[in-house]
Structure to design on (119 residues):
């Protein structure tokens, strides 16, 4: 049984920072094709914010470039999202995601953590 558990969300003022954590259990992140962070704001579609492949290739949404950094700690089997210079439009529920299968056709999902940025 694989579980992804997010933590680190909260309330922060615009311009502040948060670091989200995604702790994986039941499977090493070495063997997961890609680990991603998605977010969903009220009334909006879920969107990909940042991702990292098993080989270490990173990608970011345009809105996140220069402000957010995705990283991983193999010893802790944990993926992080460092978020700096936060804006009110970053307010959303943030979800940890893992892609797996020979064609990355399957998904693991965490329960989500709320990030609220006040103006």
């Amino acid at each position: 049984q694989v579980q992804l558990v997010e933590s680190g969300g909260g309330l922060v003022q615009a311009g502040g920072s948060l670091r989200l954590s995604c702790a994986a259990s039941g499977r090493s992140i070495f063997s997961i094709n890609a680990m991603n962070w998605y977010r969903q704001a009220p009334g909006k579609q879920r969107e990909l914010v940042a991702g990292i492949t098993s080989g270490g290739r990173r990608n970011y949404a345009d809105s996140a470039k220069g402000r957010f950094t995705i990283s991983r700690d193999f010893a802790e089997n944990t993926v992080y999202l460092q978020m700096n210079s936060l804006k009110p439009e970053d307010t959303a529920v943030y979800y940890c995601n893992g892609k797996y299968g020979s064609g990355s056709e399957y998904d693991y999902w965490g329960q989500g953590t709320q990030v609220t940025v006040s103006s």
